[in-house]
Design a protein that fits this description.
This protein has two domains: 1-116, Elongation Factor G (Translational Gtpase), domain 3 (Alpha-Beta Plaits, 2-Layer Sandwich), CATH 3.30.70.870; 119-202, Alpha-Beta Plaits, CATH 3.30.70. The protein is an alpha+beta fold and 210 residues long. The chain has helices at 56-67, 91-103, 140-149, 179-186; strands at 35-41, 74-77, 83-88, 108-110, 114-115, 118-120, 123-136, 153-161, 164-172, 192-202. A hairpin with a 2-residue loop joins strand 6 and strand 7. The protein is globular. It starts with 34 loop residues before the first strand and ends in an 8-residue tail after the last strand.
């Protein structure tokens, strides 16, 4: 293992080579952001009561610093100098950033998360996630029903032995907003859920939720 310091403008997945043997390794694929939130300076009457970094300059500096180490994060300016659109790989990704900033003394307000909708060939599309769940068999019925209510499509169901079942679903990212807490409660904490970005598909009309 080698550590290199002092190099600027280098990112995760890039290759460092000697000048006489320039052969780069394939660039790592980083899942693109699928969820975004608006971060705002705390302008409530209680601003400055809990944190020490409250100005837009300090908040923006912290967000820009995060971009140096988090390659799946994106920060875009808005029409206001006091708010930014922050995009990430899901609720957990953005929640960790928010909690870390608050523990460091930053005060901010955040909006409700929403998925990033794209127009592809003239059609509005939304991100879908491939969800893999390992759960005790006694809870599989509840999990299947809950994800079906969130417009999920079951792709596979495998008995893995010892009373465990593996479920694979294709679920719109909207359907996973707020689902982690429900899932943990439903499986009494015994369920394990992982999900990765799969593809953009035509937007499902109407609200999605449990």
């Amino acid at each position: 293992m080698i550590a290199v310091s002092g190099m600027e403008d280098i990112f995760v997945g890039e290759t460092i080579t000697p000048t006489d043997a320039v052969e780069a390794l394939p660039i790592l694929h980083i899942d693109e952001p699928t969820l975004q939130m608006t971060f705002l300076v705390n302008n409530s009457p209680f601003a400055g009561k809990e944190g020490k970094w409250v100005t837009s300059r300090k908040v923006e500096e912290r967000l820009q610093a995060e971009l140096q180490t988090d390659v799946s994060l994106r920060v875009d300016p808005t029409d206001s100098p006091d708010k930014w659109t922050v995009s990430g790989r899901g609720e957990l990704h953005l929640s960790i950033l928010i909690e870390t900033m608050r523990r460091e003394g930053y005060e901010l307000q955040v909006s409700r998360p929403e998925v990033i909708v794209k127009e592809i060939d003239g059609v509005k599309c939304e991100p879908f996630e491939r969800v893999q769940i390992d759960t005790p068999e006694e809870y599989q019925g509840s999990v299947i029903q809950s994800l079906s209510e969130r417009k999920g499509e079951m792709l596979d169901m495998i008995s893995t032995g010892n009373g465990q079942t593996r479920l694979v679903f294709l679920v719109p990212a909207r359907g996973l907003i707020g689902y982690s807490t429900e899932f943990l409660s439903m499986t009494r904490g015994y369920g394990i859920m992982n999900h990765t970005f799969d593809q953009y598909l035509p937007l499902i009309p109407g609200e999605i939720g449990g």
